[in-house]
Structure formats: structure tokens, C-alpha cells
């Protein structure tokens, strides 16, 4: 057997998992990196945490833990490994490091950022605190550790309502996603003061697009991520975090569905539900797409890029994340 056919035979069970979304002609391009990454994980006692927006060959073939940002933060606390590779964006790697100060946390590309995290600085949070004395500050995990350090508690799209209501106050500040804040405000009596950050992926969906989808695909079920504008969420059938959307499909098995979110999400969920038709207007997240099999392999081979957090902020940022995880 040639080296190539031995490699293809070894990785054939993994290809089975993704054959509905990766054409056979493309698999040989991925097989060598997948095989090498599995070997490197054993050698380095490493685990890969992958967000739902990672491409299917990462999500289904090399990841040990997959999920939304809440699940990744929770699992990051539990991993038993020397090295954690975060296949996702920088704030997710920072969160994993905050919860694993003694482990090596790697991100395959340091430039994997987030428009929400870039929309607010620690000094903005300090100014808000001065402007609204005594009002608790709830910060979305899609922020830098420095911004988390200025906050009282974190939230994700999966627990934002529970966090806001769990504080037991009349008014909160919720940063930095204006649309998430407004979407949560529509579901609760707590008054929410919002910031003006937006996700560059979700802000592009429009209510006209939702109406067009209903016209073109009668009976379609439309799920929207809560980072979408409120007028999009209002016209959707259901809104929830990436994990909640995935669970919705698993439980209700709609014949035809569209996920108004990042493109890889539909691919990853479609793999698990061959009986559901996925209509795919979607938007790519350029930051999530910086992570590839090639740079995950390089990360494990060369131990890069090591995520570090300044000691002057790590303790306070960790507290904000831990308070969230305790709720
Ligand atoms: P989730 O927490 O829903 O996975 O969202 C993370 C994210 O970055 C969405 O754009
Ligand atoms: Fe940030 Fe939006 Fe990309 Fe999520 S999809 S990482 S919120 S830019």
C-alpha cells in the first residue's frame, strides 16, 4: 500500500463524518493534516476546543470539544490536558486561559479577532461606571480580558437573559452588543442600557431577507442568532445561541430550515441531520475563518501562539467569568 493510500484508509472513518459537506476530491487535501493533528494531540497531551463556526473538517474531525461560547468556557474549566488549542477567536482563547491559568493555551492565529471585542475599550467601561453609578455592568464574553476586568459579570448569548434577571436589579448596563442588549430587553422587564457595538456578520441580515426567504421557501423555519438586529429577530421563528439553534434543529427536525448566522454553522449541523434541508443565505466570519487545519497543526508543532493575560487584569477578568459560570 502506498503512503497516500494508507493515509486515506486510516482517515476514511473521519471522512465518513463529513462526506455530506466535503466533496471526495477535496478530502486528500485535508487528510494529511487531520492525521498529523491527531498524532500531535496524543504526543502533547493536547485538546482542541472548537466553536460552532469552525469549518467541518476542524469541527467534526479534530476537535475534542465543540459548542457555543458558553459550552467552550464551561468545558475549558474541566479539560484534563497540558495544552489547550482554541479553534475559534481570540476572546475565546483568553477565556480558556483565564479559566486555566496553569495550562498552555494556544490560538493558531493571533489575528482571529471579533468586531464586538474591538468595539469597546476598558476606559469606555470605566466612563460608563462613572456615568451610571451603582448600575451593574454585564459584559458579553465577546470582549477582551481587559474589558472583562472592568465588568461585574459576563454573559453569553446562551445565558444573557438569566444573567440579567439573576442580578435582581431594576437596571443593568449590557456591553458591547447593542442588538443582543435590545433583543434581551424585549424579553425582560429589567431596563437595559446598551453600548453601540455590532457583530459584522450578523448585522448584515435584514428583515427584507427574512420575508424573501418565506416567499421563496414556503413553510421554512427561520432561526436567528441574537446578535442579529432586533427587526430580524422579531420576524424569525426562534432566536438563540449557536448551541440553542443546533438543539432546536435536533429536537424539532424541521423539514426545511435556515440559520441566520455564520456559514459553517449550517454545514456542521447539516452533517448530523441528513433529513433536514438547510437553505443557506449566510455570512462568513473572516476572523473565525483564519483558523485552519494547517495552522492548528503548526500551533501544535511549534507551540504557537501562546495566549497570555496581564496579571494586573487576569484576576478581575476571571472573577467576571466565574460569576457567570456560577449562575
Ligand atoms: P455563541 O455564544 O452563540 O456561540 O456566539 C458566539 C459568537 O461569536 C457569535 O457570533
Ligand atoms: Fe465576532 Fe461576529 Fe465573528 Fe462572532 S461572528 S466572532 S461576534 S465578528
| Strand fraction | 5-15%
CATH architecture of the largest domain: 3-Layer(aba) Sandwich
The number of domains is 3
| CATH class category label of the largest domain | Alpha Beta
Strand order of the largest sheet: 2-1-3-4
Give a count of the beta strands, DSSP E runs of length 2 or more: 12
List unreliable stretches of 5+ residues.
none
CATH superfamily of the largest domain: NadA-like
Mean pLDDT: 96
Give the ligands present.
Answer: 1,3-dihydroxyacetonephosphate, iron/sulfur cluster
Structural class of the helix and strand makeup? Answer: alpha/beta
Short description:
With 327 residues, the chain is an alpha/beta fold. It has 15 helices and twelve strands.
Can you give a write-up of this model?
The protein has 327 residues and is an alpha/beta fold. The chain folds into 3 domains: 3-113 and 288-302, NadA-like (Rossmann fold, 3-Layer(aba) Sandwich); 115-198, Rossmann fold (3-Layer(aba) Sandwich), CATH 3.40.50.10800; 202-279, Rossmann fold. It contains 15 helices and 12 strands. The strands form 3 sheets. It has a 4-stranded parallel sheet with strand order 2-1-3-4, sandwiched between helices. It has a 4-stranded parallel sheet with strand order 6-5-7-8, sandwiched between helices. The protein has a 4-stranded parallel sheet with strand order 10-9-11-12, with helices on both faces. Strand 1 (46-51), helix 3 (56-59) and strand 2 (65-67) form a beta-alpha-beta unit. The longest helix has 18 residues, at 27-44. It binds 1,3-dihydroxyacetonephosphate and iron/sulfur cluster. Iron/sulfur cluster binds next to loops.
